[in-house]
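Supplementary Methods S3. Input chains for the assembly prediction are listed below.
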Amino acid sequence: MADPKRSLLRAVLALCGLGLWAVPTLAAAFDRAAFAQDLCGDGAAQVRGAEGLVKAGGVLPADDLAYAGRLLGALAERRLTCPADGALLLDRPGAPEGHDALTGAVRPAAEARVPVLGLRQRAAVETARGVVALLTGPDPATRGAGLSVVERRVATVPAAVLDRARDAETDAGLKATIASLAQAAALSSPDLARRRAAIAAVAASPSGAAEARLTALRSDPAYTADPAFRAALDAGLSRVTRAVAIGDGLAVVYNGLSFASILFMAAAGLAIIFGLMGVINLAQGEFIMLGAYATYGVQEAFRRLAPGLLDLYLVAAIPVAFLAVALVGIVVEALILRHLYRRPLMSLLATWAVSLFLVNLVRVTIGTQNLQFIMPAYVSGGVPLYADFVVTWNRLFAIGFAAATVVLTLLILRRTPLGLDIRAVTQNRDMAACLGLPTRRVDRLAFGLGSGLAGLAGVALCPIYSVNPGMGSGFIVDSFMVVVLGGVGSLLGTLVAALGVGGANVLIEPISGAVAAKVIVLVGIILFLQRRPEGLFAVRRRR
Amino acid sequence: MSGAVQTALASPAGPARRAVRDPLVAGLVGLCLAAAAVLLVASPAPYLVNALGQLAAFAILAVSLDLVWGYLGILSLGHGLFFAIGGYVCAMHLLAHGVATTGVLPDFVQFMGWKSLPAYWVGLDHAAYALVLALALAGLVAFVFGLASFRSRVNGVYFSIISQALVYVAMLLMYRNDTGLGGNNGMTGFPLLFGWPMGSPGVVTGLTVAALLTLAAVLAGTRLLIGSAAGRRMLACRDDETRLRTLGYSTTRLKLGIWCLSAMIAALAGILYVPQVGIINPRVLAPDLSIEIAVWVAIGGLGRLGGAVIGAILVNGLKFWLSAAMPEAWPFILSGLVLFVVLVLPNGLLDLVALRPRSTWLRGAR
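Predicted structure tokens for the full assembly:
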């Protein structure tokens, strides 16, 4: 094995790996025949060949890289054979003849040995192929695939390879990814000045990943050995840590706000119905589900009738879902609940039966699978604001939707004749009836309003949650808690309670887990009811 | 809840006097005893015996809910919690008993990577201690929750949905593997019952007889309670709590006592249920299951102990049969049955035979 010529090549390649990649004349010595011989050799030789290629990758001419890539690919796919007169590339594994690796001439393969890759060799060969693909790939997809291979073993890839790839890259997204990878690689460069510059660059765009990367550097020997490096790292790290903490805080607030919006949407209808009629509608979750399914129906209708306007389906679904679910609510009220107003506990069971019926009806007619929604541009993606904090459009949509619902519902309750009737009946049903208000009709319309609000919640949920027949049961308990905490018949109380419960859940969750958050919130509500059994904002009323 | 008080004041007082003699309950007690006697001499197919035993456990659970809902006006949508407390403690006893006898650790303990049962399992291999622990635990949880609720006059629908949240939270808690009682898989693989191999015909019959005898005892006991002075106070409290309080009775203490008793009866049902099915998992804590208990009571006949038993046996018998025969249709049948009973037969199926005059409270005073 001790071939002097190959040893020399090895020495040259090793020198390249040691940081002398800036001298192109040395790399020009890439010996194609020796590379082929390495790949045909035993496991150690294969690794040597592959790693040598990676180390020289920053300066090798493109045709050398392409040559090496052909050989490595053939080796990995078992199309490389090694007769005595030089390596052969087969068209397919086991073919009787192949092209000479160096000249391209066709020669018979003649029972020659096919080298096999062991686990360690495979990793080295894969990395080398990744480098070749990254540097010479014809399209961004190939180069991206090469990059992801390189990324896994970035420690073995010299910075020159990444720099060369970044400079040559035309695709902007890929270029940014390569740059960040190169930056990470620079952090572990042997050149301390280069490392300090890399630390400053990382600290300039703070994120959780940057923090982890810098924290890992603290165990680096240079941290204790070099004071300048230590100062640079500590300064960078404290800057990143502070920024990440602020970003995380903003994210918590944002998530709490969006969760509270969903809770409010789910609970607002419940609160109106409960305040007016003393009926807890256990089917409210299923009304939300129906709203989501109505949205799906609108999307399908748009797809069939007006594919060009498909992006607008979410907006068009708002009135449709409201009216459809309001209609279902009015039917339920007229057929069932009307008879149960004096027996609220029985109406609880009746609405539970309705919810069971609706869930299974949807399950049988449409199926149990999650519905597939097209996400228009205005609810997909987001804008990174600060550190790890990203304002996602779908949650912003829910928040905006809930805010609009608050305003509209308040307007309906405060400024319309129906709202006046609802408030009157809520405060004193008997007196309202004496004054000639058609209380039963008010009940029915209010039930429709409450149900329609659940339908709106369904629309708002579509871009965030998975939509299936069982989705309603997920947050129904939470929305009950919001109603109880907020106080009966007070929309404002519902709003405050939703913000409180949503915020508390999101605040406690990272500290002690989602389940503990729910337990703590429930215990908190029970304790709160010790002080104020009527909830936050109790409406004075007689019934 | 000033509104509820207003309603109660406006409603006519319900009948406070009630005959102690109740032919339906007496008949059911007799039936239970007779069935137990038959099982001891004849030996029908084990799966039938097992089904009968499960029905008896459900009937006990229904009676426990009827006691607070039908006679005290408190609808708990969280009775599955107390049932599960009994069930979990029973399962812990069976596993600890198995470990003490065979030395083999249960699967979930090995799954969690523990070398032995955790410290708080100590003593659970003694059946008497496990029984006391289950009842005490159920009673304690009920006491704390009841005290917090009744003291601040949380009533009616409020109480119902808070109890539902309670069972929901307990379900989330038990689904965590870290809670340490089997997580979402629950506990199963019980090897022995009092040293006898689980699932042998003798054990199956024994469990069913025990469930039937317990049901008879629970029925007789609650019937006596309802016929007593305390029972009259319960009815008075149900029909008009404010008036009873004004008359100088402590309704909080009354409600709290009956509430705890009901929880312990529910735990008893759980204790009897788990060895019969051989598994306990957090699904018994699903809010839907707790609502179903109320459905049994409502369908059978609210406010009558016999009605609760009949409802539990009818609905669960139907469920055993239909969820195997036509699983798609069962939810529709159940929801249809609930709506029919709620709308047409306010006092449940017992209305059909009109065994007793209707109570004004049940017909719609609240």
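The two ends of chain B are 13 Å apart (CA to CA). The longest strand of chain B covers residues 187-188.
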